Every structure is written in C-alpha cells, then in structure tokens.
Amino acid sequence: EADIYQTPRYLVIGTGKKITLECSQTMGHDKMYWYQQDPGMELHLIHYSYGVNSTEKGDLSSESTVSRIRTEHFPLTLESARPSHTSQYLCASSEGGTANEQFFGPGTRLTVL
Amino acid sequence: SQQGEEDPQALSIQEGENATMNCSYKTSINNLQWYRQNSGRGLVHLILIRSNEREKHSGRLRVTLDTSKKSSSLLITASRAADTASYFCATDGGGYSTLTFGKGTMLLVSP
Questions:
Q1: A1 has a pLDDT exceeding 70
Q2: Cβ within 8 Å of residue A92, ≥6 positions away
Q3: Dihedral through CA A62, CA A65, CA A69, CA A71, nearest 10?
Q4: Over 90: is that where the pLDDT of A40 sits?
Q5: For A104, which of B43, B48, B98 is closest by C-beta distance?
Q6: Which of B30, B45, B96 sits opposite A102 (nearest CB)?
Q7: Which of B94, B98, B102 lies at the smallest CB-CB distance from A33?
Q8: Mean residue pLDDT across chain B
Q9: What pLDDT does A2 receive?
Q10: B42 vs A42, A45, A107: nearest CB
Q11: DSSP E strand stretches across chain A
Q12: What is the pLDDT of residues B18-31, one digit of tens each?
C-alpha cells in the first residue's frame, strides 16, 4: 500500500468556486505529479515537480496551478472552477532515481456543476 | 510524443484463462512499466522492464519487450475475477523525462 494520500476523495461544487486538491506523501520522494483522467480514458500529465520550489507544466494544458513548499505536500488549485474541469485528478510520487516507478494516491473525483 | 498504445482496448475472458495485452510506442525508451487500475482508484505499479531486458516475470505476470518493434506485451496467466481492472503501459524516456501512459486495456474476468 502506497503512502500517498489525496483529499477530498469526492468533491461536487458550483461554477466559479476556488478549490484546492490536497496531496501528501510520506515516502520522502523528490518527484511528484498531477494527472487528469476522464472515465475509461488515458492519464494526462498536467503538473510535476522535481523537488521543493520546483514546478513544471505537463503535456496537457491546465488552468490549475500547483506549489511545492514542502517535500511531502503538492497541492493543486483551481481559482475558478468550470464544468469543463469535471474529471478525476490523480496525484503520484517517485524517487529521484532513474527507474521512475510511480506511486499513486486514490484520486479525487471532481464534479463542477 | 512517445505515448504507448494498448491493444486490445477491452478483453473479456473466463477465470483460469490467460490474458495478453500489447503495448506499442513511438520513440526510444529507458524502461517500460505496466500499471493496474481498479475502477475509480489510483494506479498500482506492476512491473518494470528495462530497455536492455527482453522478458521479466513476477508471479503470474510475464512481460516481454521488443525494442526493435517498439512493443511490449503483458501476459497474466491463470486469471482470476480479482484481476478485473484496466491495465496501462507507461514509457520512460530516461533522464529528466516523465512517464507517458497509454490508453489502457480494460480486462474483465468472469467467474
């Protein structure tokens, strides 16, 4: 069982609200990632981080932002949620080595009305 | 993009049968990984095969890699109903690259 946690697990909110999805890991991993996944579809990388104070945009353009102030914490923020943001958001982490095996959290399923 | 493409998109078998899933990719890789995802959950790492390896086993899993054809296969032997899940391949280009996931194969194992 991976020691990576995401909260909330489910979130239903109205359009225009600001939301923060939390992700924490206790494995001391340097690298962390956020993926967006629609039901039955592939994962799209939206943000990643190599370590504290490092954030990079992924392959899929996203209106969300991330921060990495502490090694164990990698929150994702949407300033103004829209129905097009409805999706599942998966957080993952990996060690800094070359193998890059990723450990995933359980995901947050976001629905914007 | 070196995105992997899994084949088939969906597979339905009976318990006890073997399940084979294939993955093709486009560019050179450092390693290729297979992950499993139960419905509505996060992914779980199954096995990693490096570019200089041709075959790897882990329990009932067997993975092959053919870098000349840019393809990999995942074989699950003696499948069980609990193997029902989606299976994704992911390619790692090495260095500072990130993983690129394929579209996945949905496996249904009926009792």
A1: no
A2: A4, A32, A33, A34, A35, A102, A103, A104, A105, B42, B43
A3: -20
A4: no
A5: B43
A6: B45
A7: B98
A8: 92
A9: 62
A10: A107
A11: 4-7, 10-13, 19-25, 31-37, 43-49, 56-57, 65-66, 76-78, 87-94, 103-104, 108-112
A12: 999 999 999 889 99
Residues 50-79 of B with CB under 8 A from A: none
From chain B, pick out residues whose CB is under 8 angstroms from the CB of A101.
33, 45, 48
pLDDT digits (tens, 9 = 90+) for A84-104: 999 999 999 998 766 678 999
Q: For residue B86, which residues of chain A lie inside 8 Å, CB to CB? A: 40
Task: Tell me what pLDDT residue B64 has.
Answer: 98
Closest Cα partner for B75 from B1, B13, B5? Answer: B13
Kindly state the DSSP code that residue A26 receives in the 8-state scheme: S
* Structure-block tokens of residue A34: 């956020």
> Is A84 part of the contact surface with chain B (CB cutoff 8 Å)?
no
Tell whether A109 lies on the interface with B, counting CB pairs under 8 A. Answer: yes
Q: Is A90 on the interface with B (CB under 8 A)?
A: yes
Closest CA to B80 of B102, B51, B101, B60: B60
CA distance A87 to B83: 25
Q: How confident is the model at residue B2 (pLDDT cuts 50, 70, 90)?
A: very low
